[in-house]
């Protein structure tokens, strides 16, 4: 692979280095705020950062315990995205199922732990555009969803489509996503 960078990308990268301390501080604050908000839920938890390790907090990654939260990760993501919280799944499919690895001998091996984790892991928004008020409102939304998960799940199962937020970058200008078996599995 020839990984040369063109001049415009290099210039943008060098310019963004000036903002790196601010970006890191905001990401660390956002991670702390998300941790505080999720402390009030029983089925959502951020992935721990191992003691002694440093993180740039570029990603805020958590796991859904569907048996405690009341919804699967995919159901939760569909629901919060419809409300304007643009969470998403994280590294799906697994690397072993992605090109170029999926074409190699042994790529079809059974990685049951990986597959289980991939069903539960999600990513919350962070960065300079995400502030305390957004995270606090999102925390309220997540607590509401958890407290009402049974009724929400029943309503989701009666619909064939879930409206999406008009600003959702994934569905911008597209029809609402179908609530396929994938989104309502393990209900």
What does this entry look like structurally?
- This protein has 187 residues and is α+β, with helices and mostly antiparallel strands.
- Helix content is 44%, strand content 7%.
- The protein has a 4-stranded antiparallel β-sheet.
- It is globular.
- The model is unreliable at 176-187 (pLDDT under 50).
Itemize the secondary structure elements and their pairings.
Blueprint: H1 7-17, H2 20-38, E1 44-46, E2 60-64, H3 66-69, H4 73-82, E3 88-89, H5 112-120, E4 121-124, H6 132-147, H7 149-158, H8 181-184
Antiparallel strand pairs: 1-2, 2-4, 3-4
Estimate percent helicity.
40-55%
Assembly level:
single chain
Strand coverage percent: 5-15%
Quick one: biggest sheet? 4 strands, antiparallel
Give the beta-strand count: 4
Query: What structural class do you assign from the helix and strand content?
Result: alpha+beta
Sheet with the most strands: spatial strand order: 1-2-4-3
Q: What is the succession of H and E elements? A: HHEEHHEHEHHH
How many helix segments? 8
């Amino acid at each position: 692979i020839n990984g040369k960078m063109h001049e415009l990308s290099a210039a943008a990268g060098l310019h963004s280095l000036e903002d790196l301390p601010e970006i890191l501080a905001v990401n660390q604050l956002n991670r702390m705020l998300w941790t505080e908000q999720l402390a009030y839920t029983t089925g959502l938890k951020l992935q721990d950062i191992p003691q002694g390790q440093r993180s740039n907090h570029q990603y805020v990654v958590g796991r859904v315990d569907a048996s405690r939260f009341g919804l699967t990760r995919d159901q939760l993501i569909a629901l919060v995205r419809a409300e304007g919280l643009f969470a998403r799944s994280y590294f799906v499919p697994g690397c072993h199922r992605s090109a170029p690895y999926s074409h190699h001998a042994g790529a079809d091996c059974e990685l049951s732990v990986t597959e289980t984790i991939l069903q539960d892991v999600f990513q919350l928004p962070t960065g300079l555009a995400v502030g305390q008020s957004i995270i606090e409102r999102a925390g309220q939304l997540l607590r509401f969803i958890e407290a009402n998960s049974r009724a929400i799940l029943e309503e989701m199962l009666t619909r064939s489509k879930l409206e999406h937020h008009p600003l959702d970058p994934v569905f911008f200008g597209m029809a609402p996503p179908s609530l396929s078996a994938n989104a309502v599995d393990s209900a």
